[in-house]
């Protein structure tokens, strides 16, 4: 038997010399130590570090951690980027269950088991200053829960705690310097144990106390401090990766972006967060783009670093077109963050448009040619002025322009957090460093140089000597020259050219999205004036255009550009300009170089007559009656080619006027005592000054008498003359300031040979009585019907009907008033088919009172010009060049219609007057000028810009149109052609109904280009009117009004989309109706 010395205790067994085999509840060489069979449970162990302001106990920030898993995550380690702490709290909770103790030997008296020790150790270690040095311990403190400050339950080996032990350790004066890389370790240890008291079995007295050596439970919490942000490998030159890269930062489709190369040496990169902001112009005058709400992105996505492979692309599609910023946040475990930003444009909708309100022009060309001709050439040595093409405000990307897509992007607005420290009240928590902002992509933070949203212009040109016929196809892309500065809105072209050449110029505009649009212009060259061979003057032509006409004959030609017009000035002796005028020389379509000698053609293929004549109204030159004998006029005549170069001709002694009022005096009857005279009253340039006529007859013996004759008389019988005597008879007109030239005639009375037979006297008396009775009856009828004065007025009107208003001369050295005739004497009325046009002076206008300005529209029947009349802008509707007699009839019918109807309403286009007898244009209308043009044009201009305000404006327009149409109905006027094309808008968008009045309908076999007729607007016309236009009533106008409303709220779309005109009738009769337009209100 083995012997152990000392002997084995606690029931141990000596298994070999001095070796005891101890039971599970004992340990030691001789099993002298009693063991607790269970370790205590640690149910709670948390530590929190605080920064609490001392003056008001406000918690500024807190970092805490727990030794136990929560939702599967272990929080025993925590990283912090804060270094200032002045308070900590540790919560510890242990549990030791009631021990399951078997029966003790009889020598064991009292016993107890539980937690006998609870301690917390704080250890702060610092990274050595140099590599290789040992770790520095800056703090090593232990806290014992037996301290009553930490636990209300006393705990010791003699007082084991069974059940729950709670310990709360707080230090409100914690003050320890924390540095980057420090580790703050908190370790909690619970130890179990107990004791048993031994008794003397002999007398049951206390013998001794034996202690159980318990088991321990320990957990550790670790605070690690990282005060440095992640960095990118590019910063230290170790890589070429990009911090944030957008593969397509200007895109019409899905965005593709990625990042790589981010590092953090201590706590490592933990997560990535990318977010998207839509940029908006700020409210400053610069209107730079900004993130309006930096902390509220439209998209926010977080990715843990362990789940992102560096350089892998991520896709994203924004919700609408715009300029956006993509922000990437790179954060380590301590939540140190660094941000990178990229700017991108998403725009699948916009395009490059051409602004119809501004023109692309050749600014080096002559503006008087509407910039179609340039008056200089360039030789092969590049001497001569360049061709300068200008496109200011002509191209635009309206979306980019109005929404400032290409403006500068401001620095990302820093997001700050209040720290609570007076010395450092705020701290930046979100900002983009300059090195990580977008500076190298297509759309960077810098302003993109642009011109109305256009970033690039390209120019190309071709030249020929065939009027541009051979250079109509645009060049290839590689033939275009790029304009390097997009802010330039012009370009100078250096190219060899000669007179008669034509240059075709193309300008291409491109936006940042790659959208393109192109416009082109034709330019012709002529640097030489026309050749004027001869100018002749035929004075005082009979049966001319005017009562007093002269004809100017011009023989001129221009081989490069053709003859455009002849302009003249008549200059008085005092160098004042009496009158100016001009005549356009029209192209002769049946004229070729080989057909007749009187023909000259240009390289453009346009031919003109060399010999042209025009009538001149002598009365334009009327001067004061008293100065006629001393006045010497000079005619200066300028012959212009189409390049507006001219040669001047001068005609001296241009005295062509006349003041004769009475002509063609004839003797129609003579007796022994009477002489009967008749005469013609010729219109006179001075007729408005005539106060009467005087007849003077003088006998051969010198006796004379004078008679005053009323203006309306064209015959007179002189009575009381001597038989067989010679008389000299003078007739002249009386003026306020004198009299006209005398018209003199000689006559002799019959010789009285004896008495007249009674029968002859009776017969003559009887005939005279019959005549007197007839005259008396006519006079009585006229007097009783009140037409005597009317007959007298009409007789006077024949003499005065062509006297027009005083002429307002334009571009003269002075203005003067003179009465003239402006047309040939004709009947009181004009027959226009079945329409009678009356001479009503309330609307007649002299063409000299109207100054035509700019042609604004070209039509099949007429051209529309702006004009000046009575110092305001009006519209003149002129028949096209080469108009037919039928066109003239239609125009006069329109004039008669407006003159008779006298329509006046705020929503009906106003008729202002008419010119009846322009020598070149014939009759034409003067109408109210609407600044915004047609409603159809306005609708198409506002496509893509529909909002509530625009819809409200259109509703107001509908109301105005309805009022105008209601007025036409009240005047028994049926429109027949109501549509957006025939509604015109004032500057305040007040609508004016137009396009009604007499217009013949175009037949199927007629050419609209050669007639003054119009096609029936099928898609706007009621069905019954398509069958027979005579069925048109105000009810059919209501149908057209409904179509017009559809046209408006579809923003200018054509009605019945996808349906041809020929299909409309069958479709509608079959029940087809168009859907309510997208923007039409439901009520």
UniProtKB/TrEMBL annotation:
Residues 850-1083 form the Protein kinase domain. Its main location: membrane. Keywords: Glycoprotein, Membrane, Transmembrane, Transmembrane helix. It comes from the Eukaryota. One of its GO terms (molecular function) is ATP binding. GO terms for biological process: cell surface receptor protein tyrosine kinase signaling pathway. The chain crosses the membrane at residues 758-783. One of its GO terms (cellular component) is receptor complex. This is Receptor protein-tyrosine kinase. Residues 661-754 form the Fibronectin type-III domain. SMART domains: FN3 (SM00060). It is a single-pass membrane protein. InterPro entries: EGF (IPR000742), FN3_dom (IPR003961), FN3_sf (IPR036116), Ig-like_fold (IPR013783), Kinase-like_dom_sf (IPR011009), Prot_kinase_dom (IPR000719), RTK (IPR050122), Ser-Thr/Tyr_kinase_cat_dom (IPR001245). It is found in: Membrane.
């Amino acid at each position: 038997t083995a012997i152990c010395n000392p002997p084995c205790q606690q029931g141990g067994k000596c298994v070999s010399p001095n070796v005891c085999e101890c039971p599970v509840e004992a340990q030691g060489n001789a099993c002298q130590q009693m063991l607790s069979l269970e370790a205590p449970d640690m149910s709670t162990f948390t530590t929190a570090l605080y920064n609490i302001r001392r003056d008001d106990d406000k918690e500024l920030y807190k970092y805490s951690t727990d030794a136990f898993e929560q939702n599967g995550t272990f929080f025993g380690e925590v990283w912090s980027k804060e270094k200032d702490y002045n308070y900590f709290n540790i919560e510890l909770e242990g549990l030791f269950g009631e021990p399951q103790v078997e029966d003790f030997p009889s020598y064991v008296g009292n016993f107890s088991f539980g937690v006998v020790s609870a301690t917390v150790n704080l250890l702060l270690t610092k990274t050595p200053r140099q590599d290789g040095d040992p770790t520095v311990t800056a703090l090593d403190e232990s806290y014992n829960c037996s301290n009553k400050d930490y636990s209300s339950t006393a705990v010791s080996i003699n007082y084991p705690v069974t059940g729950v032990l709670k310990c709360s350790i707080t230090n409100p004066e914690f003050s320890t310097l924390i540095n980057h890389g420090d580790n703050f370790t908190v370790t909690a240890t619970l130890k179990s144990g107990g004791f048993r008291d031994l008794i003397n079995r002999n007398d049951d007295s206390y013998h001794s106390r034996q202690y159980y050596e318990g088991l321990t439970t320990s957990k550790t919490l670790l605070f690690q401090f990282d005060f440095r942000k992640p960095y990118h490998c590019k910063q230290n030159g170790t890589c070429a990766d990009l911090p944030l890269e957008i593969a397509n930062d200007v895109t019409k489709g899905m965005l593709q972006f990625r990042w790589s190369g981010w590092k953090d040496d201590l706590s490592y990169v933990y997560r990535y967060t990318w977010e998207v902001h839509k940029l908006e112009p700020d409210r400053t005058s610069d209107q730079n783009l900004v993130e309006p709400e930096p902390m509220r992105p439209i998209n926010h996505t977080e990715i843990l670093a362990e789940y992102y492979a560096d350089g892998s692309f991520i896709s994203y599609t924004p919700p609408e077109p715009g300029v956006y910023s993509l922000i990437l946040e790179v954060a380590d475990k301590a939540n140190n963050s660094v941000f990178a930003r990229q700017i991108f444009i998403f725009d699948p909708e916009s395009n490059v448009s051409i602004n119809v309100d501004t023109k692309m022009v050749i600014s080096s060309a002559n503006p008087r040619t509407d910039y179609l001709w340039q008056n200089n050439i360039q030789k092969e040595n590049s001497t001569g002025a360049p061709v300068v093409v200008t496109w200011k405000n002509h191209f635009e990307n309206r979306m980019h322009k109005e929404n400032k897509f290409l403006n500068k992007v401001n620095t990302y607005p820093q997001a700050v957090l209040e720290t609570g420290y007076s010395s450092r009240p705020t701290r930046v928590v979100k900002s983009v460093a300059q090195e990580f902002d977008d500076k190298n992509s297509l759309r960077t933070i810098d302003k993109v140089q642009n011109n109305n949203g256009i970033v690039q212009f390209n120019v190309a040109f071709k030249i020929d000597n065939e009027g541009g016929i051979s250079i109509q196809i645009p060049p290839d892309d590689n033939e275009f020259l790029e304009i390097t500065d997009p802010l330039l809105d012009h370009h100078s072209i250096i190219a060899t050219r000669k007179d008669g050449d034509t240059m075709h110029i193309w300008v291409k505009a491109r936006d940042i999205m790659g959208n393109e649009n192109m416009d082109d212009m034709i330019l012709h060259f002529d640097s030489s004036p026309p050749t004027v061979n001869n100018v002749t003057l035929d004075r005082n032509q009979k049966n001319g255009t005017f009562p007093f006409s002269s004809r100017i004959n011009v023989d001129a030609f221009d081989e490069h550009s053709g003859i455009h017009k002849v302009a003249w000035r008549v200059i008085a002796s005092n160098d004042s300009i009496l009158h100016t005028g001009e005549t356009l020389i029209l192209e002769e379509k049946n004229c070729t170089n080989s057909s007749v000698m009187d023909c000259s053609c240009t390289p453009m293929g346009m031919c003109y007559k060399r010999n042209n004549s025009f009538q001149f109204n002598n009365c334009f030159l009327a001067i004061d009656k008293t100065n006629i004998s001393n006045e010497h006029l000079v005619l200066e005549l300028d012959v212009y080619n189409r390049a507006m170069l001219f040669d001047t001709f001068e005609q001296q002694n241009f005295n062509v006027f006349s003041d004769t009022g009475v002509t063609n005096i004839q003797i129609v009857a003579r007796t022994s005592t009477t002489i009967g005279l008749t005469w013609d009253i010729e219109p006179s340039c001075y007729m408005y000054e005539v106060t009467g006529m005087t007849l003077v007859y003088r006998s051969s013996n010198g006796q004379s008498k004078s008679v005053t004759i009323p203006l309306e008389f064209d015959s007179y019988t002189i009575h009381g003359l001597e038989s067989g005597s010679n008389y000299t008879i003078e007739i002249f007109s009386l003026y306020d300031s004198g009299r006209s030239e005398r018209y003199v005639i000689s006559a002799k009375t019959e010789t009285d040979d004896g008495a007249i037979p009674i029968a002859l006297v009776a017969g003559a008396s009887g005939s005279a009585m019959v005549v007197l009775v007839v005259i008396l009856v006519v006079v009585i009828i006229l007097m009783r019907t009140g037409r005597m004065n009317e007959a007298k007025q009409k007789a006077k009107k024949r003499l005065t009907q062509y006297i027009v208003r005083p002429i307002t001369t334009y571009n003269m050295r002075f203005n003067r008033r003179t009465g003239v005739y402006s047309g040939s004497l004709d009947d009181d009325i004009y027959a226009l088919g079945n329409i009678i046009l009356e001479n009503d002076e309330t609307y007649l206008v002299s063409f000299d009172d109207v100054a035509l300005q700019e042609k604004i529209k070209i039509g099949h029947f007429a051209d529309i010009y702006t004009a000046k009349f009575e110092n305001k802008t009006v519209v003149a509707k002129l028949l096209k060049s080469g108009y037919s007699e039928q066109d003239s009839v239609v125009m006069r019918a329109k004039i008669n219609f407006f003159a008779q109807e006298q329509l006046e309403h705020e929503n009906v286009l106003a008729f202002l007057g008419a010119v009846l007898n322009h020598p070149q244009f014939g009759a034409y209308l003067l109408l109210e000028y609407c600044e915004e043009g047609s409603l159809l044009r306005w609708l198409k201009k506002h496509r893509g810009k529909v909002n509530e305000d625009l819809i409200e404006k259109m509703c107001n327009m509908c109301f105005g149109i309805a009022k105008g149409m209601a007025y036409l109905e009240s005047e028994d006027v049926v429109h027949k052609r109501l549509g957006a094309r025939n509604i015109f808008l004032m500057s305040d968008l007040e609508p004016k109904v137009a396009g009604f009045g007499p217009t013949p309908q175009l037949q199927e076999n007629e050419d609209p280009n050669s007639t003054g007729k119009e096609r029936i607007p099928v898609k706007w016309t009621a069905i019954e009117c398509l069958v027979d236009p005579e069925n048109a009533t105000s009810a059919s106008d209501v149908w057209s009004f409904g179509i017009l409303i559809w046209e408006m709220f579809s923003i200018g779309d054509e009605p019945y989309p996808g349906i041809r005109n020929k299909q409309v009738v069958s479709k509608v009769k079959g029940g087809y109706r168009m859907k309510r337009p997208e923007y039409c209100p439901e009520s």
